[in-house]
Amino acid sequence: MQQSKLINLLKILPIKELNQFKDYIFSPYFNKNKKIRALYELLLIQAPAFDHLSLKKQRLYPLLFGQQPFNELQINNVISDLLQLLYGFLAQQNIERQTLLKKFHCLNELIEREEIQHTDRISKSYTQVLEKKSLRNFQYHFHKKQLNEQLVRHRLTTSMRTRDQSLQEHSNSLDLYYFGNKLRIACDMTSRNIVTQANYDCQHLDYLLQCYEDQQQVYQNEPCITVYYKALKMIREGTANTYYDLKNFISEHLSLFPNEELRILYVYLQNFCIRKSNSGQSQYYRELRDLYDIILEKGIIFKNGYLSQWAYKNIVTLGLRMRDYEWTEEVIHRFKKRLLPEEQNNGETYNLAALYYARSEYKKALRQLHNVEFIDTSYHTGAKIIQLKSYYELDETEALYALIEAFKKYVLRNKEIAAYRKKANANFLRVVKKVYQLKINAHRLPTAAFRKKQQSIELLLGQLDPIANKDWVSEVFGVIDSRGR
């Protein structure tokens, strides 16, 4: 029961929503089954962990069914019914947040019942709410289309002989919604094609692009279309001009788009900078940092008020690559509290260790990671690599060799690590051991023997693919090569 779908879903709900769910299932409109109510009360006692032994089915059964012999099918049905109610509750939570959606369904029902007086009142309210919203993204045109679609239905029965402006507006809104959404999807497809070579095909795209270019004076006043036209152009062409054109346009129209949409648009800008940086144009690291500064300052990067631990790590990694250690340390401390509470300790510990290593404070990096065991495989492997690099720099031979062997076993045995990452890390450990052996023995080897081992490692670096941290391996190997041999 503790690992059931029901329990796993309940675990992600905050206490406030767990209590709201209780109100939901105790409402006779949604649920009249007393056993479902009783089951949830028993579960709620163990919130938020839901891991107590009292939640075993065999222990719950007599509390629900009395002295009856244990019947697993019977209790499974109650659990399943409670899960279905939880799905309904989550749907209801979503509906409650969407004022326009509620008005649409109300309007739809009133028209169906031919309640003309109420229909006029709700349609006027629908229009007022829609126009008060500052957002003008593709969803705005979707809601406008929905409203006008209902008004057309309504006026078919009340004013058939007069010109109905809602019919024209319905058509216009549909065109704008389709156009903006189609370009948005095209950006997603084109971006994914670059990364995964998925060969997505966005049909009619060339025709739409030609429409935009032919009627630019009209469409440039529609931000929801122009922003994706510019984004698609940047993704396709990959030029500095298209990048700055999109960046400036977004900056000038921030208030017109919701944060979830802005996050994706900024990801396109970030991916552009990353590709340019990876091709050797290091000035784009500064651009990437500027983008992070914007989305942190404006709150765009936060989801439900929290910063993703992976976004936090990516920002720190960028600061380290730029060697801007002061800015990086400020980010680590300033935004630690914006992580989920359960992620704050690991996030700060790992990223501070990475910062200390980058500053060549190897002992401090090791102390930071001492006695900390990361459950997440990404953090765990990252921490072990920081430790290994620190041992390498400090010439802690025994500790380095012991860590290589322990790390190798962890990588090979851990089922959560993807095959590609297993291979990359295994190759890294194989190479780094040979590089370290050459490092500590370089001064004792005759020149010919040194050159032979050096060439052997160069050959291995060329043959093995992939290799985790290959840049670092190449760098430390190059230092050995420059020691007057």
Describe the structure.
The protein is an all-alpha fold and about 475 residues long. Among the domains are: about 5-95, no CATH class; about 100-130; about 135-295, no CATH class. The chain is built from 24 helices and no strands. It has helices at about 5-10, 15-25, 35-45, 55-65, 70-95, 100-110, 115-130, 140-160, 165-195, 205-215, 215-220, 225-235, 240-250, 260-280, 285-295, 310-320, 325-335, 345-360, 360-370, 375-395, 395-415, 420-440, 445-465, 470-480. The model has no long low-confidence stretch (mean pLDDT about 90).
Total strands: the figure is 0
Q: How helix-rich are the residues, as a percent range?
A: over 70%
Largest sheet geometry: none
Structural class: mainly alpha
Described by the principal axes of the CA atoms, the overall outline is flat
Distance between the termini: 66 Å
Q: List SSEs in N-to-C order.
A: HHHHHHHHHHHHHHHHHHHHHHHH
Unreliable parts: none
Taking Cα atoms only, what radius of gyration do you get, to the nearest Å? 30 Å
What does the average pLDDT come to?
92
Strand content: under 5%
- Helices, by number, come to 24
List keywords for this structure.
mainly alpha; 24 helices; flat; 0% strand; 485 residues
Lay out the secondary structure:
Layout: H1 5-11, H2 15-25, H3 34-44, H4 57-65, H5 72-96, H6 99-112, H7 116-132, H8 138-158, H9 165-196, H10 205-214, H11 216-219, H12 223-237, H13 240-252, H14 259-278, H15 283-297, H16 309-321, H17 325-335, H18 344-358, H19 362-369, H20 377-394, H21 397-413, H22 419-441, H23 447-463, H24 470-481
